[in-house]
Structure formats: structure tokens, C-alpha cells
């Protein structure tokens, strides 16, 4: 049986951390920058290219939401949370009326100001009764239902109607099945609900709006701003132009109240500043009472804009119908109709811009952008300067990192060597000297003494010497 050879204990010397760290960091940077280039192609490069070629004007116009619908299968969607999956599954489609901007007005020397917010139903936080779980069996009042989910609007609106459909009994054993598809406005009494037929009129229960000694009434969504001013002017690029002055009338019963619907209204040190004002009208002061309600003011504004406009030429605060560019345009959050941030942006977008008035609240009104050659599509986010900056940064940073990291790796490949001692070194920086230096550090070989006992022989045990003597004797006998 042969003699066992002991396993050699290989010892790997410690490497230079600077060399290993440099190679590691460069490899990681090269991989990450290449992945970033692939991702940014979809997230930045292609959208930026489409924005540059879109022809969309950077000057915003105004959009008013007309309807918001839910679709099971979508050819397009107003907002998707992830661009790679935006075309799959259900989506929300928002349609808007696209129009040119209204006028900017300033009212000077105003006093006795007041404002009132007419709150409607908060669809997001309102209590919902689901018929499928038998929550409609005791409904009483006026309810706005959507596919079997009903919201009580009795406290916010007073509805007047003439006809209803055949009532449905939502109580009993089959009540939840009977009312599972209730949709529209319903008048309910102890779980028996009848759908209200058109025409009907639902007035906002917003009363006690003080109109006494007010000659300026501005509407903005669900808010009413009232004041007593001395002069109204329009502001444009050419300066200011007076459109009405109460200083020139006697302030009697023959004087007028200026009414308009504006996007923003602010009471500043300059006066009351209002932007994007439309439907400007002059309403006779004698039709006003000391207190009125929100619905009456809306009616006066619509009627006055037709009967006696603020500007007969239609240049200042014109009718909304005269400013329309396109009806039923598709609304999207951007050109792609999606975002990649995964921060739930679409939920906020649909909540803010999807108000189409079906809940009897004010419709959403907001700035938007469109291309002259395609007014059928409007977007809410468009900033060509910001897009250009993002495109430049997204191109320069990953490309520079990729080139630098690859150059570093190629340099390391050409300049780093592994010595006989398995240690990495740079050429010309002690690499060639490493192996020679290690050899130089070894003690010189001493001359061989024939009578000297080899180190291995000196370490032999008595048992090994007896075995060797026995082996020699056996060989002599064989001979």
C-alpha cells in the first residue's frame, strides 16, 4: 500500500482592496447604466421624441369635464399607473370641452366682501349603501345610485320632479337581487325606490347668500364671491381697459350687478383679481333680494349672459359657447396617458379631473394643452422645456457612466497582472518585481554536505528506520 500524500494547504494571499474595489464598482456601474439606458428608452427617450414632434402649443387653454366613463376593454385611457401595462384591463375615459381662454378682470376699490362655499356631496368619503349586501332595505330620501351603490343626497339637494318609474322593493328576501342594478336618481321610502324620470331639477341646498349692497358677484365652481366695487377693468398684454364703472351711475334701482364665472378669484391689495372669466353679464339690481340661494344665482348668470352681456362686442368675458374649440375631446394626463412613478398619481388625477357633474357638484375646470392639427385630444401635463432638460440628463448621465466604467475595466484588463503568488498587481508598479522580490527574499541555497543528514531523514522515527532496514534485508535474501 502506497504512502498517503498529505493534502496541500493552499493559502490565497490577501488582495489589494483598491484594485478589487475598482473592478467591482466599474462592473456594477456598467451593468446599471446599461439597464438604465434600456429603461429610459421607454420612460424618457420615446416620450420626449413624441413631445418634440407633437406640435402641441405651450400656451394652455381651458378644459371642462363633460363625462367620465368606466370601460372594461380600452383602446385608450386617461391615466394608467404603469406604461407597459396601460392597455390591459379596465380603465377610465374622461371627455372634455376644449375652449379658448376667457378674460382676466380686476375690480378696484371693493368693500363689504363676502364669500360662500356651497358644499355638495363628497363622493369619495360619503357613506355608500350597497344593495348586494342588503344595505338598501331601509333607504329613505333622495339617492344617487350607480350600479347598485347609492349615496344619500337629501341633505345637499332638493329635487323637484314629476314622474317616476315603477318602484323597486329593496327589502325582503329578494330585495338585494331586485336592486342590484339600480342606476340614476331615485326617490326612496323605507326601502322602496322609484327612479326619477327626466326632466327634473335638483337645487343645491345652499341658501342665505348675502346679496344686499353687492354689485359684483363672481362664481367659481362651488364658490360664490360677492363684493361692492367702484370700477371693473380687463387686463391683457396691452394694459388695462375699463369695462364698467359704478361711479358713473347713481347706484339706484337702475344700476347693474356684474356677474361672471371665473377660474380663479383672489382678493389682493390691488383689488379682486379674477382669471379666465366667461359668461359676463349685467343683471338688474332690482331682481336681487337681501338673501338668495346658489341655484338662483346660477340661473341669473346664465340668463343675464344671454339677455345683457357685460361686453356687447363679446370681447370681454364672452359666452362659453363662443370660445369652444372642440366638444368631447379625449383627456389624458400626458401624451402617453400613463405615468411610471408608481405613486398612485392616477387616483388623484381621476378624482380631480373626473368631476363631470353627475353627482350634482360643479364640473372640473382646468388648464390643458392641445395641438392645432388635432383638437380631439387634450393633455394636462406639457412642459417642453422641462422635457428637454430631462432628455439631456437622461442621455448624458448613463452614457457617461457606461463609457467611463467600460474604459476603466479595459484599462484594468491591460494593466493588472496576477503574479506567481496569486496576487493582483499593476504592471510597472511593482508587479514585475513582485515575483522576483519574493525570490530574493528566500535564503540562498547552502552547499550540500554529503555527510549531512537531510532534514526529512532527521525527522524519521525509529519505526520508520526499522521498516527501511527490514526492506533492505528482504531484498538481500531475494538476491
Automatic annotation (TrEMBL):
InterPro entries: TipE. Residues 434-479 are annotated as: Disordered. It comes from the Eukaryota. One of its GO terms (biological process) is regulation of sodium ion transport. GO terms for molecular function: sodium channel regulator activity. GO terms for cellular component: plasma membrane. This is Uncharacterized protein.
